[in-house]
Design brief:
heterodimer, A: 486 residues, mainly alpha, 2 domains, two-stranded antiparallel ribbon, 76% helix, flat, B: 265 residues, alpha/beta, Rossmann fold, 6-stranded mixed sheet, 11 helices, globular
């Protein structure tokens, strides 16, 4: 029985349990819902929760643990001599899995019967070609020992899958029956529902936190590998970025970090004033009709995929900047430049700044505006002296979000600023950023274990630390300068 | 009451600060205020009383053109300050509001320090030359608002951290720091406890020596305690306007009498 079918059956039991539980509660009080402690639906929910939650929890746990247990048992069956020169146990294990899969196919197409399988040996039959016939490609002829392991693997897997189905379905039914039998008119089903809702909420926040932890750990592990192969001192302090295919690369982060900060800086110089002023206009000056038309129009910018912005940078902004600005002034001849990427990225970020700032400015109480106007302040004085200070935390949040987006942006940089790592102050020169190099190092032709590839993780972790530090600094700044209203 | 009446009689011929003639206010199509004529004397406390929604706050907000900030609000008729029409095109409403200060129902201190709250108006209008003069204005305003002794050691603390009554007195200090000629108060004590209310009322009585004060209130006792003149509004019209003592003891209009004795409202 496949996982999908098991899931469907459990769901059916749970939904059926809901209706049965509700009906049971109603019948206990002779159809008068007022005599129940909780609304009838809560009794249905009780059965549903007890049927579904333990069953699905067991299913998930089983799916996580089963491969580990099987791998451990089969791994022990593989004789050391069947691991060929230059190969690893892991590679043989994946062969085992592929052969087991091939046997499944052969049995399913009735080329082989279960009885044949028991007597079959690798010497008598050409398993490799027969497997190839059913679409399972093997790299080499099958060794008897590996074949036995595969047969064992298949046997255990089939058994485990059946056991899992049995356990999960049994749990679902038991849970449903258990809950059903607890239904009494004064049973507090509503409180059970409340408690399980709380657990659901906690679980959801844990998923978010654990994901972050997982991402950091995976980055950290590979980064440690990288620093074993490449000195950390060179990574942080070398001023050249020059990866080679055959080793001996210079993997200094400085030019990439500089590019990242430079492009982000230009983007923020464009987006923060424009976005903030747009937000102030929308929130304080615009009439209702103007606001209801302009706000969605600005937010459309946020819906444009970054690759489209990239095209805009490549085809329009870059050449225009070069032909009408950089070239006539004699300050650059490349259409890929920090300026191009920064400008286009700035445009992309405008709605992030304006939309969030607009919301926080709107959240400033009207009474503060009235207070300021009543003292004879003009609109702009009110905005500058009362509203912006009160909205500061939200505005800083908006700018932070924009900064994180700018630092993490890849597509616009590839198409607008190029891919050449360079340390230069000239904004009309091609430069590149950390994210672009992460992509190119990870998708390159080099071996995964080489420093040229692993450097991507070190770059990623550095980026993560930078944005984290930025967030912390901003938090501290906001805490010191904010003017909190009630 | 007798002494009070004497004071009022003496005030009867004092100079008119604000004059309103035939004032109509519309919110969109809703005719909120109908044909109001009132003369507000200088250095007097004038109370506006009446049931909720009767237009007294609306009229108050006409006096410093705060209604300009409300979309769809239209004011007709004539309102003069020292004989000058405040709705004339040559009048700058922002400048007008510096002359006619306002205190709101709910204390609304800015989320700044106590000092900055009071210094806000003087800074905007450039009333102080130098820090020393600003300090002086702030201290004087806080003293007049009877708040100085309570906050003099923590002028840098946020104004929002004060108690409700202190916040309202801070707002009054903030309003008088711009040296207005008229002070409008929109139910200034309705969000406060009795002790804070008593402090505010005492303060209003003292402010009379320097300003013309107009106060909107729901409490008839408050109107009787603090004001010399009282105007009774009902359903958007001015029903009766006169000496406070006369309004409360000998009302001319049956509606005023009904309201005061608690039969309508």
């Amino acid at each position: 029985m496949s996982v999908g079918i098991i899931t469907l059956i459990v769901l059916a039991i749970a939904v059926g349990g809901f209706f049965i539980g509700r009906a049971r509660a109603m019948s206990l009080v002779g159809g008068d819902a007022r005599k129940l402690h909780s609304l009838p639906g809560y009794y249905g929910q009780l059965v549903l929760i007890f049927a579904a939650v333990p069953a699905f929890a067991a299913l998930i746990l089983w799916l996580l643990v089963q491969p580990m247990v099987i791998e451990a048992r089969i791994g022990a069956l593989i004789a050391p001599e069947s691991i060929a020169e230059g190969s690893t146990r892991d590679l043989v294990m994946s062969d085992v899995r592929r052969i087991a899969n091939g046997i499944d196919q052969l049995v399913a197409q009735q080329v082989l019967s279960e009885a044949d399988l028991r007597t079959l040996s690798t010497e008598q039959s050409d398993l490799r070609s027969r497997m190839a016939d059913v679409g399972v490609a093997l790299g080499s002829d099958v060794v008897q020992n590996v074949f036995e392991a595969a047969k064992e693997y298949r046997r255990i897997s089939i058994f485990a899958r059946m056991a899992m189905a049995a356990v999960v379905l049994l749990l679902a039914v038991t849970g449903a029956v258990f809950a059903f039998r607890r239904i009494l008119p004064d049973f507090r089903a509503r409180n059970v529902s409340e408690a399980s809702f709380k657990v659901l909420l906690i679980a959801a926040s844990f998923v978010a936190v654990l994901t972050t932890v997982g991402i950091v750990l995976s980055l950290a592990f590979e980064t440690v590998h990288f620093f074993r192969l490449y000195p950390a001192k060179d990574f942080f302090f070398s001023l050249t970025w020059n990866p080679q295919f055959r080793g001996g690369s210079d993997l200094g982060i400085a030019p990439l970090l500089w590019g990242t900060l430079y492009v982000s800086f230009v983007a923020l110089v464009v987006s923060v004033p424009v976005g903030l002023f747009a937000a102030i206009f929308l929130a304080e000056y615009a009439s209702k009709p103007v606001r209801s038309a302009a706000k969605p129009a600005i937010e459309v910018l946020a819906g444009i995929p970054t690759i489209v912005y990239g095209l805009f940078a490549l085809v329009t902004v870059g050449p225009v900047l070069r032909d009408y600005f950089a070239a006539p002034l004699g300050i650059g001849s490349s259409s890929s430049s920090v300026m191009t990427a920064g400008l286009v990225m700035g445009i992309m970020l405008i709605p992030f700044v304006s939309s969030l700032s607009d919301d926080v400015i709107n959240a400033v109480p009207q009474s503060l505006r009235d207070g300021s106007y009543a003292l004879g302040a003009t609109r702009s004085e009110t905005v500058r002296r009362v509203i912006l200070p009160a909205a500061l935390p939200g505005i800083v949040g908006a700018i932070l979000l924009a900064t994180s987006r700018a630092i993490g942006e890849t597509m616009i940089v590839v198409m607008g600023a190029g891919a050449a790592a360079r340390l230069s102050l000239d904004p009309f020169e091609a430069m590149t950023t950390i994210t672009v190099k992460i992509v190119s190092q990870l998708t390159g032709d080099t071996e995964f274990g080489s420093p040229e590839t692993l450097v991507a993780f070190a770059l990623g972790l550095t980026l993560f630390v930078i944005t984290l530090a930025l967030n912390v600094v901003a938090l501290v700044v906001v805490r010191r300068y904010r003017e909190q209203y009630e | 009451m007798n002494t009070m009446q004497k004071v009022e009689n003496a005030l009867a011929d004092s100079e008119i600060k604000i004059g309103a003639r035939g004032v109509q206010v519309y919110y969109g199509t809703n005719h909120a205020l109908k044909d109001v004529d009132v003369d507000i004397a200088d250095k007097t406390v004038t109370a506006f009383i009446g049931p909720s929604g009767c237009g007294k706050s609306t009229f108050l907000r006409c006096l410093n053109r705060m209604n300009d900030t409300i979309v769809g609000c239209r004011v007709e008729g004539q309102i003069t300050l020292d004989g000058e029409d405040i709705y004339a095109p040559t009048v700058d409403p922002v400048q007008l509001r510096a002359r006619v200060g306002m205190v709101f129902q709910k204390p609304n201190p800015f989320p700044k320090s106590i000092f900055e709250n009071v210094a806000y108006g003087p800074r905007i209008h450039g009333l102080a030359r130098g820090r020393a003069e600003l300090d002086e204005i702030v201290e004087k305003s806080l003293r007049r608002a009877a708040l100085w002794d309570e906050v003099k050691d923590r002028l840098t603390a946020p104004g929002t951290g004060l108690s409700g009554g202190q916040q309202q007195r801070l707002c009054i200090a903030r309003a008088i720091a711009t040296a207005p000629e008229v002070l409008l108060m929109d139910e200034p004590a309705s969000a406060l406890d009795p002790i804070a209310t008593a402090q505010i009322e005492e303060l209003i009585d003292e402010l009379r020596s320097a300003f013309s004060v107009v106060i909107v209130t729901h409490s008839m006792q408050q109107a009787a305690r603090v004001s010399q003149k009282t105007a009774f509004f009902h359903l958007g019209s001015l029903v009766e306007f006169g000496e406070t003592g006369q309004i409360f003891t000998n009302p001319q209009d049956p509606r005023t009498e009904s309201y005061i004795t608690g039969r309508i409202g």
